[in-house]
Design goal:
This protein has about 110 residues and is mostly helical. The chain contains 5 helices and 2 strands. The protein has a single domain, classed as Cytochrome c-like domain (Cytochrome Bc1 Complex, Chain D, domain 2, Orthogonal Bundle), CATH 1.10.760. Bound molecules: heme C. The site of heme C (HEC) has 21 residues, from helix 3, helix 4 and helix 5.
């Protein structure tokens, strides 16, 4: 009983402190991203350009060997979020770099290439 409570307490502290990541890119209007809706597309598009287009291309047509064309990805939003969070192969993980609304925003943004 106490162990379970302690676990949840530690988890909550971790979750709260992990939001305070100085390396994450600050969005001008993070509150404008709600669920799967992106209203601050310009911020997300900029982040995509800086952090993703060097491999995946500006419009999702890859420019390096091994990086899939995001224009034709078959992954769901949740699956894309998992890849962006944890990385895969030579793709660098973003979980310590970008915050969750941004990562979700990117996953939804990729669908707009189709
Ligand atoms: C250093 C190059 C590189 C960068 C930068 C990069 N990726 Fe990737 N990405 C890859 C490679 C390579 C794969 C395939 C990994 C594998 O399957 O081995 C991949 C896979 C993916 C996939 C899975 C696609 C599929 O259909 O399986 C998604 C989604 C994705 N990247 C999104 C992003 C986003 C969003 C960013 C920016 C935050 C990003 N990537 C930055 C190289 C990169």
């Amino acid at each position: 009983m106490t162990k379970g409570f302690l676990f949840i307490a530690v988890l909550s502290v971790l979750m709260i402190t992990s939001c305070d990541n100085p390396a994450s890119i600050e969005l001008k209007n993070p509150s404008f991203i709600e669920g799967e809706e992106i209203t601050n597309r310009i911020d997300i598009a900029l982040i995509y350009r800086y952090k993703c287009s060097i491999c995946h291309g500006e419009k999702g047509i890859s420019i390096i060997d091994g990086a899939p064309n995001l224009i034709s990805t078959q992954l769901s939003v949740e699956e894309k979020i998992a890849v962006i969070l944890n990385g895969r192969g030579t793709m660098p993980p973003q979980k310590d770099v970008l915050d969750m609304p941004t990562i979700r925003g990117l996953a939804v943004f990729i669908d707009s290439f189709k």
